[in-house]
Amino acid sequence: MFVIELNGVAKTFDGAIHALQDVSFSVPTGSVCALLGHNGAGKTTTIKVLSTLLKPTSGHAIVAGYDVVREPAKVRASIGSIGQITALDWELTGRENLVLFGRLRGMRRKHARLQADALIHQFDMSHAANRRVNTYSGGMLRRIDIAAGLMVRPKVLFLDEPTTGLDPRSRRDVWGLVSSLSAQGVTILLTTQYLEEADLLSDSIVVMNEGRVIASGTAEDLKRHVGLGYCTVSPVNPADLSKIFAVVADLKGAEADYEANTVSVLAPDGVATLGEVFRRVDRLGVELADITLRRPSLDEAFLHLMDSVTT
Amino acid sequence: MTALAALTERVVLAAVRDDLPFAILSPAVSFAVFNLMLSNVIDTGGMSYPQYILPVVVVQMLLLGGLTTVDRAARDELSDFADRLRTLPISTVTPLMARMLYCLFRNALGLLAAIVVGYAFGFRMFGGFVYAAAFAVLVLTLTLALSLAADAAGVLSAASKNGIARGGGLSQLLLVPQLLLVMLSTGLAPAESFPDWLHPFVRYQPVSQVTETLRGFASGHLVVSDLATSLAWCLVLLMVFGLIALRIKRRPQ
Question: Which chain B residue has its CA at the smallest distance from A133's CA?
Fold first, then answer.
């Protein structure tokens, strides 16, 4: 069952700028999906379409069972949307902001106050809750910003670059929060530029580039999509590096890195490739410091995907 | 309803920490200052100067209040807060209505403060309760009309590509015409004290018309033609800017 579904969504600004082209993906209920891509890839535009801030030029998008164009009010009632930039009232305190957003979602004042206090406690903000938010640090703003989106537990939560500009500790706090919300059954779509973050938090990843989806699946799928691991050999004596390179040069993707003192080849057949490399090097009689078979990191998968799109 | 109450409360809370105290006190203070400076300088015929001048002080409060409304609307419109409001299950007119309620609240308090200080200086509501009520109703109707206009101007300036207007410069630009309207009116001095060639303008411009109407209410009589003109101004402003305000409430692009 999918709680977010995009089908051929396109968004064109001023008739000329194609921010989104034929974007299709879906997010299963209760899962975390990461939209991964560089600046300008179309991540924020996608979030804005899904949270009814922008109308798609064509295509369909369903959130929580409602069409974002035909039933925007029902979509809004089901979502929480937290943008890249803090969207709080600067003149109000943290607590007042929370109560305000609770009441804007139809909570009674008393109930909103109770819920605000609970979130303030949960987010470890008790020391600052009665200060105006314009005195907050970036991490504190982010926490109150997210808390404001949780006054009424949404079915679907959109987080646009939730950790951009945060220090490592606040970043981990946000990660913990995403995990715990997900455990409570909230479906989360977040955008990020950090592969690490996508890998760590999400059940599925959608990679975007220049307004298009260029790959999607789990982190494992994406790594597999790049296909291959690498087999890397490292001699004890760096002087042997060129000899090793010479005997494996005919293998696919052979590369010598003199700085790192490694020779690596693509390993399409996994362990079989490793065996082949080992036999060849063994015949040389060179003493090896290390020989490893390595799965590509998500970083490599990402760069590989980007390359395959741009070339 | 909860959303409207919450948003109105938000504007009031923010304003209390910002300009609300000054907004409420400034008509009372400028009334006092005008009296001390001008009461022996300007000949207002049979009428005492406090009685003569209180209406224009109130009108000036409406105009200056309108300027802060321009700014507030522009700021609200440009803020990320406003973007977030658009993702909430509330009507797109609610933020506008909240700002209007705040304007009514602010001007009601300002009017009250001005009248209290006015009484200390000798201003009186000679016409009794009904005329006093008419005075207040006209002030609040004008508040609504001007605030709608100011709000529309603010929202439009926020949407415009002009840097000065976007930066809140619009209210600065509007300060000049509103000052001229107050100075060149029968609010501070009778038309006879202006040069002849200015008489038609001074007599028939809206600030004079409204001031005369309010002055009439305070004295306990009603000049029908002045009231008609004042109400016509209200109606035109309300209709034109009400429509504009409703039309430009930002929809998804």
Answer: B14
pTM: 0.78
- Look at residue B149 and tell me if it is in a domain: yes
pLDDT tens across the length of chain A (311 residues) = 899 999 999 999 988 889 999 999 999 999 999 999 888 889 999 999 999 989 999 999 999 999 999 999 899 989 988 888 888 998 899 999 999 999 998 899 999 999 999 999 988 889 999 999 999 988 888 889 889 988 988 999 999 998 887 888 888 888 888 898 899 899 999 999 888 888 889 999 999 988 999 888 888 887 776 666 778 888 888 888 888 888 777 877 778 888 878 888 887 777 778 888 888 888 888 888 888 887 776 677 777 777 776 65
Q: Which of B8, B146, B144, B139 is nearest to B67 (CA)?
A: B146
Residue type, B140: L
| Residue A91 to residue B90, Cβ atoms within 8 A | no
CB contact under 8 A, A87 and B2: no
| Strand (E) or helix (H) holding A210 | none
Which of A83, A96, A132 faces B84 most closely, judged by CB atoms? A83
For position A53, which CATH number holds?
Answer: 3.40.50.300
Contact A157, A82 (CB under 8 A): yes
- Nearest CA distance, A44 vs chain B (angstrom): 13
- Across the interface, whether the CB atoms of A92 and B10 are under 8 A apart is answered yes
CB proximity B250 to A under 8 Å? no
Check: CB of residue A103 under 8 Å from CB of residue B3: yes
Range of the domain at B199: 2-248
Cα distances from B212 to residues A60, B54, B224, B225, in angstroms, run 60, 11, 11, 10
Rg of chain A over all Cα atoms, to the nearest angstrom:
24
Is residue A10 a contact partner of residue A58, using CB atoms and an 8 Å limit?
A: yes
Quote the tokens at residue B196. Answer: 């002849």
Tokens of B101: 């309620």
Domain holding A204, by residue range, is: 2-224
Tokens describing residue B197? 């060639």
Structure tokens at B158: 């926020």
Q: Cα dist. A176→A82, A189, A293 in Å? A: 17, 15, 32
Q: Looking at the structure, do residues A173 and A289 belong to the same domain, yes or no?
A: no
